[in-house]
């Protein structure tokens, strides 16, 4: 079994800017979609009363871009478990461009922290992570190794990201 849950996606017109690269907000949308499909496939019982008895409230989301994606690029969004407490889950995401020549290129890396909450409004309170969700997450707790044929390190993209950060 792979140490990550994978969502494969083909970039469409509606996800790109006028110059043809993927608009940054889509990386966060893909994180949400990946998390939702993981729940649907691996912990469907958690979704039965979702929104009524349990809410996964996103408390933090981030994404660092190393290289650009463009129209019709195929991307693998790879979600893994970074941290698990009694009431919170932190996911890590690798965005890997799947090139036609077989090369896998890491183009972005993100994180998302979610808190389990029961109740709504003023009655909202922290809730324990359901046991079925804990079991479903367990196989994804190991950090992915860098096996041969894995995603290529983003050398040039890291230089661009550093230049942007340093002004």
UniProtKB/TrEMBL annotation:
Region (Disordered): 140-167
InterPro entries: HotDog_dom_sf (IPR029069)
Residue ranges crossing the lipid bilayer per the database entry: none
Record-linked CDD domains: 4HBT (cd00586)
The protein, known as: 4-hydroxybenzoyl-CoA thioesterase
Signal peptide per UniProt: none
Superkingdom per UniProt: Bacteria
Coiled-coil features, chain-numbered ranges: none
